[in-house]
Structures are given as C-alpha cells and as structure tokens.
Design goal:
This protein is α/β, with parallel strands linked by helices. It has a single domain (8-251, 331-386), classed as Divalent-metal-dependent TIM barrel enzymes (TIM Barrel), CATH 3.20.20.150. Helices cover 42% and strands 17% of the residues. It has 14 helices and 14 strands. The chain has helices at 20-37, 50-58, 63-72, 105-121, 146-168, 187-199, 204-213, 220-225, 230-239, 262-269, 296-300, 304-307, 332-343, 369-386, and strands spanning 8-11, 42-47, 79-81, 128-132, 172-176, 214-219, 244-249, 251-256, 280-284, 287-291, 311-318, 324-325, 328-330, 350-353. An 8-stranded parallel β-barrel has the order 1-2-3-4-5-6-7-14, surrounded by 7 helices. The chain has a 6-stranded antiparallel β-sheet with strand order 10-9-11-8-13-12. Helix 5 (146-168) links the parallel strand 4 (128-132) and strand 5 (172-176). The longest helix is centred in the middle third of the chain and has 23 residues, at 146-168. The radius of gyration is 20 Å and the shape is globular. The N and C termini lie close together (6 Å).
Length: 390
C-alpha cells in the first residue's frame, strides 16, 4: 500500500488571480489562512494562468515574491493546474476552458512555461506534476487529424520535459485529466489514446521519456459522472501501464430516483449557474446518456426517459466531506473506493483536493472559501488516515 507522504494539496484555481501580485496576495492571505486553520501541513497547488506565466517569463525575478510567500507561510508547491489557460473566473467560462486545445502550439508553449516555473519552486528531492486538458472538448475537436496533432505536441512536450530534467535535475510529469464530454472522457478512451501515442514512439529512448513524463490526472468525480466503477477504472489504467501522476480528490452530485424526487430536482435547479459547465449524465440499458450542461428548466421538467433513470450524475464539484446536500446525494462513496484503489498502486500519485466551485455554490449559511477548504482538507486527511496500514 502506497500513498504520497507529501502534504495534502488543494488546488488554487478556486482563487481569482491574473497577476503575480494577485497570486502573492492569495498565498499570503487565503492559502496561509487555510494552513493556519489546519492541524497538519498542507501544500499550495498553484493555478498559473497564461497571463502570469508570461509575466514571469518577461521578468524571472518576479517569481521570488511567490517563493517567499510559500516559505514564510510554511507551504510547499509540487503541483500546478495548467488546465484553465485564461481567466477561470469570468462571468461565463463554460466550454471555453478547454481552449486552446492540444493541437494548438499555444497550449504546448504555455505548459512548458508552467514546467519551467514549477522546476524553480519544487523542494529538493520532490517530483512535480502538471494537470492539463483532456486534449480538448469533443464538440470543438473538429480537425480531421486532431488526435495526431495532439500526439505530436505531447511528444514534443515530453522531449522538453526531458531536457528540463537534464538541465535542472527536476522530474516534471504531465497529468492529462479526462473529463465528461471531452476527447478523453472514459477510461477506454484514455487507454486507446495512450496506445495510439505509444504507436508513434520510434525509439527506446523516446519510450522511456514518454513513460516518465506523460500520464493522467485522475479526477474522481469525472469518472463517477460517467457511471464508471472507479476502482476498476484505476486498475485498468494500471494494467495498461498508464501512470496516474495526480489524483483530484473530488465529489459530484448524484440525484437518486428523479421521478419521485421532485424536491431533489427543484433543489438541483439552483445548481444551474452561468460560469462553469455542468455536464449531466444518466445511465441506461445501452450506456450513458448526457446533456452538455445543466439548466434549471431541464432539472425541473426533464424528458420522460430521464425521469425513468435510477439516478443522474452532475459534474458540479461539491464539498468532498458531504455525503448529501439536502435532498441530493453525492459520489463520496466513489471517492472512498478510489482512494483505496490508489493506495494499492506501487507508486504514489500526488493528491489534491479540487473543489473550485465554492464561489458559485447555491445555498444559505455556506462557509467562506477558506473555512470550506479547511473542512475539506481535514475530512480528506481523516479518510487517508483511516486506510489500513501496510
């Protein structure tokens, strides 16, 4: 049984920051507060949007205030979220979060900038991870050679990460994050893609580089929304030698018995908000059926086939310590299964809580972001400690 011994991380994409000064302010106020309120060390999983990486590329010394804020608040950083390229806190983000996709040189260049910055922030002897988009959003992936262009850019990234390893001694691993309705959403699609990627590898040396630097970010709620057996999903990735470089500790919404649960559907309608995409799934005898985004009207007056489903799953990251939200359930049971499956691996992926939705969560008497994050980290810490010891 293996679990990361690094401090548990939480993802900073929950905090708006588009400049180095704003990010430094986030670290010295909000992240530092979560650290003070926690009874154990935590790590800062930084989100560096494109604007910040460009600012730091133009003025490399500007990284020092960030490093200083980490040091002075007893924080380390070993992982970055390089999924959202632009401003993740606009009034409307939705499907734009998947752009640029991995056919676009901008995505490659941005990710390389993130890797160079992470190499400078990593503690000695610690590997780094960077999560990224699952190639792109299916509805926007309309180029005839889309997958092959993605593979070309990912192989180039692997080569550059290898060069970075040679020049700095730092190992940085990319973590491609499957997500509902994206080019990579199911475990099978991930396996098929890595098989196609490996088919393009033309030497043992490049194979070693790819194996070291390219893997996945396993966001638990994403596979729960797909109605996958998360333990089997993780086992299947392992059987196919696809390394999980990072685990996003997350829970989604589950609406049981929608036909009889009018109160739950009414409650769910409040989760239809204008900023983020909330892919909605139901299971059927022939597989899953999906809606691109949850709307209040859909929740209240769904088609008859949706009422006949046993349950719905909605891609809305909800607090990881919650088994239920009023008349709604959550996929926390899957989270427990996934953590146990990850603990059984022969290596230890990075672990990060990623509930980025605190500022759009409906309801009264919600904790503020820092208090909510503190509660999530504490619950996750307890969950990890409850696992059987080897």
């Amino acid at each position: 049984m293996t679990l990361s011994t690094l401090p548990l991380s939480y993802c900073g994409n929950v905090h708006p920051a588009q400049t180095v000064d704003e990010l430094t302010q986030v670290l010295t106020t909000q992240t530092a507060r979560v650290q003070r309120q926690s009874e154990f060390p935590i790590a800062a999983g930084l989100w560096l949007p494109d604007a910040i990486t460009r600012e730091l590329e133009e003025s490399p010394d500007r990284l020092e205030p960030i490093a200083k804020a980490l040091r002075e608040n007893n924080l380390i950083c070993y992982t970055l979220n390089a999924f959202p390229f632009g401003n993740f806190h606009l009034e409307r983000v939705k499907e734009q979060v998947y752009l640029p996709d991995w056919t676009d040189p901008q995505r490659l260049e941005y990710t390389i900038r993130c890797a160079r910055l992470l190499a400078r922030l990593l503690p000695d002897g610690v590997e780094g991870s960077i999560s990224t988009v699952p190639l792109g959003f299916k509805a926007l992936a309309d180029k005839p050679d889309f997958q092959q262009q993605c593979i070309t850019n990912l192989l180039e990234l692997a080569r550059q990460l290898d060069d970075l390893h040679d020049s700095t001694g730092r190992v940085i691993r990319l973590a491609i994050e499957p997500e509902p309705l994206c080019v990579l959403e199911t475990t099978k699609e991930v396996v098929d893609f890595f098989n196609a990627l490996r088919a393009r590898v033309d030497s043992e040396a490049l194979q070693e580089i790819v194996d070291r630097h390219l893997g996945v970010c396993y966001d638990v709620c994403h596979q729960s929304v797909e109605f996958e057996d998360v333990a089997e999903s993780i086992a299947e990735l392992n059987r196919n030698q696809i390394r999980i470089n990072k685990v996003h500790i997350t829970c989604a919404i589950d609406l049981p018995n929608p036909a009889q649960n009018k109160e739950g559907r009414e409650f769910l309608a409040d989760f239809a908000e204008p900023r983020y995409l909330h892919q909605t799934f139901r299971n059927s005898s022939t597989g899953t059926v999906s809606e691109v985004d949850l709307t209040a009207e859909f929740a209240r007056n769904p088609p008859a086939a949706w009422l006949e489903a046993d349950s719905w799953r909605i891609h809305f990251h909800v607090p990881v310590h919650a088994d239920s939200l009023g008349p709604l359930s959550t996929t926390r049971a899957d989270l427990k299964k996934a953590i146990s499956a990850v603990a059984a691996l022969e290596y230890a992926p990075h672990l990060e809580v990623e509930t980025y939705t605190w500022t759009v969560m409906p309801g009264k008497d919600l904790p503020d972001v820092c208090d909510g994050l503190t509660e999530e980290l504490a619950a996750t810490h307890r969950l990890l400690n409850e696992l059987p010891k080897p």
